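Practice problem: predict the structure.
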Amino acid sequence: MDNKKIAQLIFPENTLKIKDIIKKYPKRNLKEGQVVTRFAPSPTGLMHIGNFFQAFISYNLAKNTDGILFLRIEDTDEKRELKEAKEVIYSILNRFNINFDEYQTLSGEDIGSYGPYVQSQRLEIYKAFAKELVAQGKAFPCFCKKTQGKEDVLNQRKTKFANDDEKEYDPCRDLSYEEVKKHIDNNESFAIRLKTKNKGTERIKFYDLIKGELEAKANAKDFVILKSDGRPPYAFAHAIDDTLMGTTVVVRGEEYISSTPAHLELFEALGFPFIKYCHNPLICKLDEEGNRRKISKRKDPEANMMYYFEQGYPIDSVLEYLLNMINSGFEIWRKNNPDKKWQDFEFGVSDITTVAPIFDLLKLNDISKNVIAKMSGEELYTTWLSYAKQYDKPLAEILQQDKDKYIKLCKMDRENTIKPRKDIFNYAMIKDNFDYIFSAPKVFELDAQDKVNANEFLEEYSKTFKMPISNEEWFAKVKQVAEKLGYATDNKQYKLAPEKFKGNIAKACEFVRLAITGKKNSPTLYSIMEILGEKEVRSRLNKRF
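Answer:
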């Protein structure tokens, strides 16, 4: 069989030489221990948290070894590609500050020497390697029609498995030059398949950087390496691109473990050295019965990375939570290093968890409370305003009208305190939790007797009210009015004979707090008065329940 003639027949226009391609992609000059890795998303929809999980692992592996991280867009699935998906990928990576050493800009400029960094611009490279495999007799054109429905698939499998229940050799694998030419002359479309050498009974051992030595069933199928539209499936493009681009570690989901033998067979056929794999565990959730299931775009809104922006989670909150899932040692490190940045935490592939992490929104919220609590008032105001500009424009206008006032709100009970408040875990909550800053309260939870007592107390308190200059001063004034109206200012006396008093000092403070905030619990009332200003506070004290 004249394989070289078949190769030229089916690829007459491809003149790229393999030696010239290899020359264009020289071996990287790396220092010992440096990792070259990549994030290679497909622009087919939203960015799933599982995809971002891999990007973040890759980012940290490169960062922690002073290595190289590049972005490659795998857009070879034309039918599933969405035009806006590429912009979404770039936007999310940029907002999470995942910076790449090499990539292609949205305007089409390659930053780096190993591009193009978009697979649809590398089709001639894939065709050149496919042509060479055909010329060597390692691959062949397949003219079989695409299967239509389950019955068609079963009928085709009967032919392919005619003599062996294990092997799935394609019926086109041994076509003569004349037979191939006849199909070509009839303008029949074809795919290119790898001619597997395996019998279907072998087991292939390979090493995974996270899980150690693994074993899987060998590939026994003549699988497609170039589709009829000239585009490669993942396996073929991955083997060529990651070799040419000098990738030293491929981070991908553990769902690829079973297909790794087929990928290794491709590397061998191409004459490439095997690559190192890092199969990360998949992020899971617990169902109602406590069973693990993969986090789902359809069932779980938090599977979409846009969810965290829309809800207003700080970037560092999400990244710290992902570090918790990647490496359980991060939580201990954080306790021992409360003031350090997460970027100071270092880990290698051997430190990545082998167990599928469970996504826990409560855990994320706890981490986010700590992140927000550490922000300065100015920082919180700036990030809150940035969130509002995108997701709550009317709020953004309000925040910009009185910047100093809202910086004070963001500082409240945060600075110069031993234990800052930790009741906010995203920016969307701030407006709701501090609604009384934006408008006077209208609903109050008071029974009939409390309303009478509250109105009496507020009438007396407001007569001599003036803006206090400290927390101590406002409390002293409340205490003075309370004592005058028959409230216990000594809790010990109140506990001994509560019937002798209208209430205690806590009840008196509650009346003032309710009038100003509408809530029985709030941050330091003096701080709230400072933010609202004397005129607004006096207006609220003059209203009655």
